[in-house]
Amino acid sequence: MASSEQHNHAHVIAQALPYMQRYDGRTVVVKYGGHAMGDADLGRAFARDITLMRQSGVHPVVVHGGGPQIGKMLTRLGIVSEFKEGLRVTDKATVEIVEMVLAGSINKEIVQAINAEGGRAVGLCGKDGNMVTAEKLRRTIVDPDSNIESVLDLGFVGEPADVNPTVLKLVLKEDLIPVIAPVAPGPDGETYNINADTFAGAIAGSLNAKRLLFLTDVPGVLDKEGNLIKQLTVAKARELIANGTISGGMIPKVETCIEALDQGVEGVVILDGKVAHAVLLELFTDHGVGTLIRP
Ligand SMILES: Nc1ncnc2c1ncn2[C@@H]1O[C@H](COP(=O)(O)OP(=O)(O)O)[C@@H](O)[C@H]1O
Ligand SMILES: CC(=O)N[C@@H](CCC(=O)OP(=O)(O)O)C(=O)O
Fold first, then answer.
1. Are 101 and 63 in contact (CB under 8 A)?
2. 8 A C-beta contact, residue 269 and residue 282
3. Measured between alpha carbons, how far is 49 from 289 in angstroms, rounded to an integer?
4. Which atom belonging to ligand 1 lies closest to the Cα atom of 252?
5. In sequence order, what E strands does 126-281 have?
6. Does the C-beta of 33 come closer than 6 Å to ligand 2?
7. β-pair partners for 122
8. Ligand 2 centroid to residue 194 C-alpha, Å
């Protein structure tokens, strides 16, 4: 006779059916942040989740970051790096390392991990098939003390100006799993470093994705006391950015969530990538984890 533990297993699998039906044939973009990487067991669990998604009829698209890993390589090479408004100031030497780490080692590591679980992943970056064309990021900032406006110059930091999903659609049609690094060419042949959250949002919008998940190293958006905010409206998210509760790397994440909702992505969630099988918990169970951002 089956044990109660076996019954529980069966129950969990059965519970997943309506969710699998909901996402059947739909695209789910998963942004895998650099802070969620690093632990071998968690990396395998992530690769297994992505493979299981594909096996159950979902079309996962992985967009990855690698901020801490870029930082480590820059330190090894003696290149000093700083962040402004959550974005890395990127000169010519830095962008070379960014491309090497993101489109090189990290991208291939994720592809290999998914393939080791029996998935069929293909590594790409914005350059492949002219998927993403970047333009230099232009952002005006206002000094809170003097109220003086200035333009933030971050060097080779770009934002997606145009997304052509043709190559992605081909890859998805062949039941392959695209794994994309956020590096893209500019109009004059230069290479731009794009924040991975922003990049993931642009990809999700162009594919009309059903869901966009951000895997990071915190349980979601936290309030001033450090408690998880389970649901956040766009208006409240803007307020939390303005009053400084949301800062650093969480700013581009939340801004991207807002834009993705605008572009028709149905659900956007920020969740803890340090929890094993976070993606499965979020997609296929009643236990939605993390912060859901809604219009
Ligand atoms: N209100 C907030 N709630 C949660 N995290 C926040 C908040 N404000 C700032 N953060 C910071 O944002 C970080 C996540 O962004 P980031 O470091 O860019 O991660 P990733 O590599 O996953 O993109 C958290 O580790 C935390 O330090
Ligand atoms: C412009 C900019 O800041 N680019 C990021 C790209 C990687 C990234 O976004 O990685 P995470 O998702 O791990 O933060 C960087 O250079 O770190």
1. no
2. yes
3. 15
4. 18
5. 132-136, 139-142, 149-152, 158-163, 177-181, 183-185, 191-193, 211-216, 231-233, 267-272
6. yes
7. 178
8. 7
| 92-99 helix and 67-76 helix, angle to the nearest 10 degrees | 120
Any ligand 2 atom below 6 A from CB of 51: no
State if residue 219 touches ligand 1 by the CB under 6 angstroms criterion.
Answer: no
ipTM for the whole complex: 0.96
From the number of C-beta atoms within 10 Å of its C-beta (0-12, 13-18, 19+), residue 222 rates as middle
Q: Do 34 and 74 contact (CB within 8 A), yes or no?
A: no
Sign of CA pseudo-dihedral 139, 144, 150, 155:
negative
Atom of ligand 2 nearest to the CA of 71: 17
pTM of the prediction? 0.94
Which of 196, 173, 184 is CA-nearest to residue 131? Answer: 184
Helices 250-262 and 234-242, axial angle in degrees (round to 10): 150
Q: Which of 75, 81, 88 to mutate to test the pocket of ligand 2 (most atoms within 8 A of CB)?
A: 88
pLDDT tens-place string over residues 128-177: 999 999 999 988 888 878 888 888 899 999 999 999 999 999 999 999 99
Please choose from 88, 250, 289 the residue to mutate so as to test ligand 1's pocket, defined by most ligand atoms within 8 A of CB.
250
Q: What is the pLDDT of residues 55-107, one digit of tens each?
A: 999 999 999 999 999 999 999 999 999 998 889 999 999 999 999 999 999 99
C-alpha dihedral, 89 to 95 to 98 to 100, nearest 10°: -170
